[in-house]
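Hi Y.,

Following your request, here is the sequence exactly as I used it, all 317 residues.
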Amino acid sequence: GGAHLTDATNAARTSLFNIVSNKWDDRLLDLFGVPKTVLPEVCDNVGEFGRTAPAVFGRPLPIFAMVGDQQAAAIGQACLAPGDIKSTYGTGCFVLAPVEQFKLSRNRLLTTIGRRINGQTHYALEGSIFVAGAVVQWLRDELKLVSNAAETEALAQSIPDNGGVYLVPAFTGLGAPHWDASARGALVGLTRGAGRAHLARAALESVAYQTADLIDAMRADGASCDTLKVDGGMVANDWLMQFLADIQGAPVDRPAILETTAFGAALLAGVGAGVFNSVDDVSNLRKTDATFEPAISDDSRRALRDEWRAALKRVLS
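Below is the corresponding structure, written out as tokens. Let me know if you'd prefer a different format.
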């Protein structure tokens, strides 16, 4: 309660903040009927944000950083410059790629603030997938096909291919780059021979296909994807990471620390506390656990993605 502050990355999420001028936007405030007097001061990601309440940790501790979750994950992944790209897998999936300067996407992506330090704003393209890890939760909780997420990997590996079965998990519509709130899920290609393993595999594959669609949009906007850095609980699935590399055609780099959101926030706090000189200095602290190289031909990749697009077309409104 001692300070009424926020940072630029969180302010950018409010639909009230002009990310070019780095100020609360008067036109948007008028549109939504929000008085500027109730809004916090917008600060850099690194600075003095006050202290914690003594009851929380036994004594007040200084707060040296504040950052949005996906921006924190990008910092934890050393995804700091154009050419870097990261994808975080939780209930949904969020792909973020830094860009040289502010630019509007021509391919239905968002432009956001990646970080603001020492008054310098760094921008990024971002796309969100509504259903990623949630599709495995659906298999477990609603269909009762698995008792835990790890079982999906063994099931996917137990069959040589997907048998023509595709799941479009548009349970709550489709996010970027399709942005179709009316779309609903579909399971296509079922035959008498399709079983539990095919459904589990189709669920995992759907996450990779959606990621590939997003990366295509980012490439069309000028971002590069030489290597895709991944994080979040879902990336512990080796089979999925290999399929992700295969289907989007670039290596997938899994870090030693999967919870990169917390790691990135801690690194920023370290910069604020003077432990590190700059965000660039902490990039070498990120370590790779495993790299997955594409292992299928271009023709195979094209055929799989064509089948996915055919399934996707069935649900788009």
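The CA atoms of residues 110 and 126 lie 5 Å apart.

Thanks again,
Q.
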